[in-house]
Each structure stands twice: as C-alpha cells, then as structure tokens.
Amino acid sequence: MIYLDSAATTFRKPQTVRVAVQRAMQTMSSPGRGGYESARAAEELLFRTRTLAAELFGVPDAEHVVFTSSATHGLNIAIKSVVPVGGRVVVSPWEHNAVTRPLHALGAEVAVAAAPLFDDDSCVRAFSKEIRRGADAVVCTAASNVFGYVMPLQEIAAVCRRMRVPLVVDAAQSAGAEALDMTALGAAFVAMPGHKGLYGPQGTGLLLCGADAKPLLEGGTGSASLSQEMPDFLPDRLEAGTHNVPGVAGLEAGLRYVRGMTPERIARYERRLIRRASESLRRMDGVTVYASDDPARQLGVLSFTVAGRESEDLARALARRGVAVRAGLHCAPLAHQSAGTAEGGTVRLSVSAFTTEAEIDGFLNALRGILAK
Q1: In this structure, are residues 16 and 256 in contact, taking their beta carbons and an 8 Å threshold?
Q2: How many CB atoms lie under 10 A from the CB of residue 288?
Q3: To 5 degrees, how large is the angle CA 302–CA 121–CA 345?
Q4: At a CB cut-off of 8 Å and minimum separation 6, what does 324 contact?
Q5: Which pLDDT score, from 0 to 100, does residue 307 have?
Q6: Can you give the residue ranges of every domain in the chain?
Q7: Which helix (H) or strand (E) holds 131?
Q8: CA 326-328-331 angle, 5° bins
Q9: pLDDT means per 10 residues in the chain (373 residues)?
Q10: DSSP 202-245
Q11: String of b and e for 52-65 (b: at least 16 CB within 10 Å)?
C-alpha cells in the first residue's frame, strides 16, 4: 500500500514506538497509585515524557504539559477554559470541527478572519481587524489540515499579546514538523495529537498550558484524595482517571524520534515530496492544485480537484490501485467554504518522514491511469 494519509494518522511509526508500547504493557501499572516497582516505572515514564515535551515545545514548567486522549480533547479543555458562554471568538478561515463544534456548543459568536489561501499579509490584517472589534479569545490552527497552509502564527500571536486576548493554538498538523515555542508565542494553550507528526499511538495527545484551566472531567488523580474538588494544580487538575500508560510510552518514543530528526529536517523532507507531487499534478489536464508558490508556507499536505470527477470517486479508484488518500471535507467545512471547495471537497494527500519519492511517483502514475480512462 502507498500510504498518503498521514494528516489523519502517521500509519508507519518508528520501530522504537512499537517496542515501547509493548514494554510498557509488560512492566508498568498505574502511576501515582502505589509505591511498588511497576507503579514507580509508570510515574517515571510520565515525568520523562512531560520533560521531553516541555523541552521540545518551549514550556517553562514540565508540569504544565498535560496528557490528553487527542488534540480534540485538549482543544475542548482549552476552549472551555477561556471562552465564556456566548462569548466572541476570532478564528481563522481554516479551522477544523474540533474547534468550531465546541464553540457552537458554547453559543459563541464566531468571527472568521477571512483571507485568501496562502496570503499571510491579508490573514494578519483580518485577524487584527476582528480582534480590535472585541474578542474573548482567538483560536487558530497552526497549519490547515486540508491545504497544509502554515499560518503566520507569530504575527497573530503578537497581535493577541498586544490586545491582551488569550490565544488557543491547534497544532494538530504542525506539531513535529514545524518548530513551536510556547513561551515565545505567549499562547494560553497549545493542543496537539500524539498520533500524527509526533509518531505516537492513537489515543494520545498533549495540551500545553500557559493559562488557568478548567477540568473537563472530574475523578481520581491519586492526589488530594480527601477533597471532593479536583486538585488546583497541574497536571493533576486536568488528568482525572487512569493514564494511557502504553500510549504515553509510545508517545515518548515518538517524541525522541522527532527530537533526533528535528522538526526542521522533517519539514524540509515533507515539503520536497509535496513539491514533487504538486508540480506533476499541475501538468495534468483538468487538475486544480491548492499549493503555495512559497514552499515555506505549506507543510506535508496537498489538496487537489479534477474537473468533472467526484473527489470521493477518485479516492476509491486510487484505493483500488493500492493508494491511500482522503477525500471530501476532512472534518473542516469552514476551510472548504473559505477556499470555495465545499460542494465536493478535495482529494488530499499527506506525507510523513517515512514517505518516499517512489511512493509519490506511484500515486501520480495511478492517478494518470485513472484519468486516462
């Protein structure tokens, strides 16, 4: 199989991730629930992983790195911590349902900082304009899961700092492939999944906390057990219940892989693959490619459409030829409305550090064969 759906999950992981998950299942129990060897081993794992993530993402205090089950889980905590019911929130035009649905549930007034795709200057001006109109919070993806557009996050964060508006960052598509410094951004929260660019297992994620957070769940933490309220300190305040210890073990191994490779090196490689694909796609009749002229503005995600062909049909045809891509709206209808692709969506290919040039060429040959018919 030619796997080009890494924006959904990086199917191919480092061998160290698989080994770490299996070892944790054999040697670790519940952290914070006992003084015996397997419990202590789990506690040490959590400490190491928090510390590693804090170093990688510029978090001053490792205790402000919270384990979640997904980026969606983390975004729900973040949004419900800073957005009041009915509040006004400024978002980018490229947000995922993991952002827009929690805002809808809160009855928030959602102001979209409308700007053309891959246009940084217009994007920053639109955010500045909407924030000046009043905002309880800003929620912004670091990179679009549909088009790979790398947002001008530093400039948007600077506007938020000037206006004293809390910023929530959805780093689902950028974590691991784009440098991120929590301290420099001054963000209230940054949420990310473990199973995409961090090469960990599904069911893992991280929430980086730079502001006070409200628990989304209440329950046991192994600390402050006499109180019927959740602990008032991190990370315990946000980590009710038993940790996914095997998942965290795999996540630690994935983080170590990313640190060794470096996000910058991974991004350069992924951009080269996307450029290879986009240049060939643009030479095909009837194909519209959504790619930036500046490779630095796009990560390893590329969308395209074919005139007269349904995106879902193309994806099924590619699957029959052994190529895995995603088609449709990609859980991001706002992004498609903003780009004018909402009617049929797009075909999306997305790469990882394990994708090869030969696989890109195999996909292109498969698509040529389909279009020739």
Answers
A1: yes
A2: 14
A3: 30
A4: 1, 2, 3, 4, 5, 11, 318
A5: 96
A6: 2-10+262-372, 15-261
A7: helix 120-132
A8: 90
A9: 98 98 97 90 97 98 98 98 98 98 98 97 98 98 98 98 98 97 97 98 98 95 90 96 97 98 97 98 97 96 97 98 98 97 97 98 98 90
A10: TT-EEEEESS----SS----SSSTT-SS--SSTTGGG--S---H
A11: bbbebbebeebbbb
Tally Cβ neighbours within 10 Å of residue 214: 12
CA distances from 147 to 244, 267, 320 (A): 32, 15, 24
DSSP letters of 50-108? Answer: HHHHHHHHT-S-GGGEEEESSHHHHHHHHHHHH--TT-EEEE-TT--HHHHHHHHHTT-
Q: How far are the Cα atoms of 70, 112, 139, 207, 208 from residue 188, in angstroms, in the given order?
A: 18, 20, 10, 10, 8
**Number of neighbouring beta carbons within 10 Å of residue 227:** 9
8-25 CB burial, b ≥16 within 10 A, e <16: bbbeebbebbeebbebbe
Q: Are 192 and 74 in contact (CB under 8 A)?
A: yes
Q: How many whole angstroms from its chain centre is CA 248?
A: 17
Looking at domain 2-10+262-372, which CATH architecture does it have? Alpha-Beta Complex (3.90)
Sole residue written with tokens 């450029």: 275
Q: How far apart are CA 297 and CA 126, in angstroms?
A: 18
Q: Where do runs of H (alpha helix) occur along 310-356?
A: 311-320, 333-339
Q: Which fold has domain 15-261?
A: Aspartate Aminotransferase; domain 2 (3.40.640)
Q: How far apart are the first and last CA of the chain?
A: 22
